C-alpha cells in the first residue's frame, strides 16, 4: 500500500491547487468584475453543480470505494471501470440534454449558462475516482499543478474589464476539461482487456442509487445556499458574492484537513475488506486527533483576522463579507468532523443507511432555516442556516456511531481548544492595533502560528511531537525526543 503520509501531501497539494486559482485571482477579479458579476458566476455555478451531480449519479465515491476494494484484482478493477464509464455516459448525456436544450434557453443569462455547461461535458472525462481508489494521488497532483497554473495565467491575460465575465467562465470551465482529459494518458497501464460480454451493469444500479441519495442531500445543502440567496433576495447577486467569498476563505482552511478524507476512504475501505475493524478504528482516531490539532487554530484564526483581511484582499464594497467570514469560521470544525465520521468511516464501512440519514437531515435543516432566515438577514441568514445544518449532520453521524466510537474520541483533542483560544485572543488584540493591510494580516498569522504551536511544544503535546519526529532526520529526532 502507498504511504499515508505521502498520499496526504499529494492530496493536499491537489486540493490546495484546486483552490489556488480563486485565491490568487479573487483580489484581482473582485476589483475587475465587481460583486454583481461574481454573484452571477457563483449563482450559475451552483445551478450547474446540480446537473453535474445528477449526471454523475454518485459514481465518483462509489467508483473509488469499489476500486479500492479490488486493489489486488486488476481484472475486477478493469471490469468495474468500464461498467461505470458506460453508465456515466448515459446519465451525463441525459443531464447535458436537459441543461443545454431545456434550461439554458429559458434563463436570464443563456450565453453564460452555455459557457458554464462545459463543466458538464468535462465531468464525463473525470476518472480521478479510479486513481484515488488505487491510492495514486501523485498523478492528480501533477495534473492539477499544470492545469491550475495555466488557468491563472489565462485569467490575468484575458480578463481585463467588467465585460469579460464570459472569458473568466471559459478559463474556469476549460481548465477543468483539460485537467480531466490529462488523466486518460497513463490509464492504459492500469487496465486489462475485458470482453464486452462479461460486463455486468445491473450489479451497480442499486448500490449506486443508495450512495447517490446522500450525495443529492449533501450537494443541496452545500450549493442551495447560493441558489436560495439569489431567489429569496430578488436576484440580489451581490449577496451571493458576500456569502460565496466568505465560504471560499473558510474552505481553503478546511482543505488542509479534509484532504485526508479521500485518502482515508480508500485506506479504510481496503482495511475493512480484510475484516480488520480494530485497525480501521485506529486510523479514524488518529485522523480525528489530526483534525483537532489543525481545525481549532484555523477556526479561531479566521474569526480573529476577518476584519483586517477582507478590506485589502477583496477591495472596497466587500465589508459585508467580514461578519459572514467570522460567523462561518466554526465550519472548519463541523465539516472536518462529519468528513471523518461520514466519508472516512461510514462510507467505507458500507453503512449507507446511517450516512444517508445524516445528510438528508442536514439538507432538510438547511432548506428550512434558509427559507426562514435569508429573506430577513440575506447572506448572514444563509451563514447561520449552514452552521445549524452542519451541526445536525455531525450530531446524527456521531449518534449512529456511538457504539463504535465513544465520547472519548474527543478527549485527546481537548487540549487544543484552550491553546487556540489563547492564540485567538492575542491575534485579535494585535488586529486592534494594526491597520487593515496585508502586512498586518501576515503579522497576525505569524503570531498565531508561533504562539499556538509554541504552547503545544511547551507542554510537550505527544501527538504533535510524533508528527514532527516522523518527518525529521535522525539527529533532529533526538532533540524532540528529549
Rg, Cα atoms, Å? 22 Å
Proportion of beta-strand residues: under 5%
Number of strands: 0
Helix fraction? over 70%
Instruction: Enumerate how many helices there are, as a single number.
Output: 21
Q: List low-pLDDT spans.
A: none
Query: Kindly state the mean pLDDT as a whole number?
Result: 86
User: What does the largest sheet look like?
Assistant: none
Helix vs. strand class: mainly alpha
Q: What would you call the shape?
A: globular
**What is the domain total for the residues?**
2
H and E order: HHHHHHHHHHHHHHHHHHHHH
Q: What is the distance, rounded to the nearest whole angstrom, between the alpha carbons of the first and last residues?
A: 32 Å
Give a description of the structure.
The chain has 482 residues and is an all-alpha fold. The chain has two domains: 4-191 and 198-414, no CATH class; 415-482, no CATH class. Helices cover 80% and strands 0% of the residues. It has 21 helices and no strands. The longest helix has 38 residues, at 277-314. It is globular, with a radius of gyration of 22 Å.
Q: Could you provide a short overview of the structure?
A:
Helix content is 80%, strand content 0%. It has 482 residues and is mainly alpha-helical.
Features:
mainly alpha, globular, 21 helices, 482 residues
Mind sketching the topology for me?
Elements: H1 4-18, H2 20-32, H3 34-56, H4 59-68, H5 74-103, H6 110-116, H7 118-124, H8 128-133, H9 138-158, H10 165-182, H11 202-232, H12 237-273, H13 277-314, H14 321-328, H15 331-346, H16 352-377, H17 379-400, H18 416-433, H19 438-458, H20 462-471, H21 474-481
Helix pairs in contact: 1-9, 1-12, 2-9, 3-5, 3-7, 3-11, 3-12, 4-5, 5-7, 6-10, 7-10, 9-10, 11-12, 11-16, 11-17, 12-13, 12-14, 12-15, 12-17, 13-14, 13-15, 13-18, 13-19, 14-17, 15-17, 16-17, 18-19, 20-21
